[in-house]
Amino acid sequence: MTQSPTAPTAPTAPTAPATLPDADAGAGAGAAPSVAHGPRAEPTAVLARFEDWTRLAPQAPAVIDSARTWTYQDLDTAAEQVAAALAGRVRPGDLVGVCLDRSTALVATAVALARIGAVYLPLGPRPGERRTQAVTEDLDVACLIGDPALLPEAHRGGQHLPLPLPTDGVNAPAAVVAAFTDAVRGTRRAPEGALYAVLTSGSTGRPKAVAVGEASLSVALDWYRAETGLAPGDRQSLLIGVAFDPHLLELWAGLTSGAALVPAPDDTRWDSRVLTDWWRERALTHAVAATPTVEPLLDRPWPQGLELRHLVVGGDRMRRRPGTDVTATVHNAYGPAEATVVTTTHTMRNTDPDAGEQAAPPIGTALPGVTLVVTDDDGRPVPRGQDGELRVGGHCLALGYLDPELTARRFTAPAQDPELPSVDRLYRTGDRVRMNADGSLDFLGRLDDQVKISGVRIEPAEVEAAFEQDPRVRTAVVTVQRDSSGHGRLVAHLRPADGAVPATGDLLDAVRAWLPEQAVPGSVRIVDGFPLDANGKVDRPALAAQAPAPAPAGTATADEHADAGTDAAATDAERLVLATVRDLLGRPGTGLGDNFTDAGGTSIIAARLLETVERETGVRLRAPELLRSTDLRAFAALLDQRRTPQTAGA
């Protein structure tokens, strides 16, 4: 790794532990309060750092996209051309919905919008029709940028402005346009100074948008560079789904450090072995990944031949520590979108005394510029060692939601005792945590109905509202079912409208237009009514208990086979595949004739299915082979074929 002697500099984020306040301030006698401050930090620049690298090292690789390398000069030129094309149509402060996947086109678009001063709103390459409609009805979105063939219908027929963006490389679009419509736009605009906005799940059934300023992102980037040493000559992953804010940490970390971004092929999301092969083949030195994707890697020997030095993992509870064979430094990261991607981290190395322990690590200590407060219901700090709600303040905070009333409810003034210098507001995370004596946090769960599925925060009310848009559904209640390893899946309990007899598959197809992939339930139950508690409210725990418990992976009863249209002649592979899919989806009625994705399969579920198949049979199949299979029977036949020894000369 080389560092340019004239490289732009940023304040170095010290790695000292979080500072502790006076032991008696605002807590019980003799107990320190649950307040901790990260090291001092000052906001710097984001776009200007990229432009510095363009001047200092114009021929250095900025994006290594399949067989093509884009230099910093190439990327700067592409971004300038896009900015020029949008001139006059997109103004500073305008929200622009970006419907692109991880690609050079996405990176150039992010730089172009930052240069214009427009607000980057990532929606993903195939935004749901109804979800996009809800967003554009609420928010003042100037246009959508994406492949015209994949844009929602309302924008496919509007005015299209072709954009000179790359159409080759990984996940590249066939063409890119800025799509404008004549439809009435929403009224909510991003607050002044916003660099980007991201959607989070909304309890009202409609997604809510949170806006983040350049200063807040700069503090997280300064920490990332200082902590991981990311520098010229390094290669940074571009792996996280574009609809989720951690991809902004990846994207701008690379561009502000003089390193190269490497967009990930889509199948890396489905198969942890494909992910590690990609790390090896592309010589990745730094990566960010979702916890459910990394967990299977920690359950087997760490892959050899990797150049990966730092791996930042987040989005879900980490259930074990990396072993002594893990050659990368692993950072267990926590942070809501409202606190700019990363708020706390716990760093783990293979030389740690507790390496390999089958116990959840803490979510760590405060990043530079971050204040952590664990509070009671009244907002006062609890003594260390007691449970409470985590509230976050400091440079990390977002500007707020694009809904001022919601901002006022969730971003609140801190309690007066103890005083928090330079902290004028705290974000209520809704997460239940415990602060240890050293200022580190243990994550204990949620305080409200919000849950995490495959690392994505989901409001059950949003899923319920999506089902209730369907005239065949009178009422929907969504619960979470967890397996023995703690992995969760959503179960939708639906009371149909009078006279309606809807097919569960049709209902799932309908809600996919409203919801992100992780929010589509794996199971649907048609019910006559809901159990009520003493207050007359739906008794969700009792309702969840009514859902059939999944069978252990790798087993299925004869009755289940009969219900699914199979018989005693089913092969071992068919039994294994069917039982595992039923278990993972929580849908005992799934049959061999069902298509995996139509039955509710997601990228995370596919990864777990492939892991189980390899563990039970020794046969390694790839995600594309699962996705290309017309149904589960065809996938099982492929497994049988791979298990059957071939005769000589065959």
Radius of gyration: 25 Å
Question: First CA to last CA: what distance?
Answer: 49 Å
| Low-pLDDT segments | 1-28, 551-567, 646-650
**Helical content (DSSP H or I, runs of 4+):** 25-40%
Average pLDDT number: 85
Tell me the number of strands: 28
What's the quaternary structure here?
single chain
Shape, per Cα inertia axes: globular
Beta-strand portion reads 15-25%
Structural class, from secondary structure content?
alpha+beta
Describe the structure concisely.
This protein is of the alpha+beta class. Strands 1, 18, 19, 21, 22 and 23 form a 6-stranded antiparallel β-sheet that branches. The chain has a 5-stranded mixed β-sheet with strand order 5-4-6-8-7, covered by helices on one side.
List the helices and strands and how they pair.
Blueprint: E1 35-37, H1 47-56, E2 61-65, E3 68-71, H2 72-86, E4 95-99, H3 104-116, E5 119-122, H4 129-138, E6 141-146, H5 153-156, E7 159-162, E8 177-180, E9 194-200, E10 208-213, H6 214-228, E11 235-238, H7 246-255, E12 260-263, H8 272-281, E13 286-290, H9 291-298, E14 310-314, E15 329-334, E16 344-348, E17 365-366, E18 370-375, E19 387-394, E20 400-401, H10 404-410, E21 411-412, E22 426-435, E23 441-446, E24 451-453, E25 456-458, H11 460-468, E26 473-482, E27 488-496, H12 504-511, E28 523-526, H13 540-546, H14 558-563, H15 572-585, H16 603-617, H17 623-628, H18 632-643
Parallel strand pairs: 4-5, 4-6, 11-12, 13-14, 14-15, 27-28
Antiparallel strand pairs: 1-18, 2-3, 6-8, 7-8, 9-10, 10-20, 15-16, 16-17, 18-19, 19-22, 21-22, 22-23, 24-25, 26-27
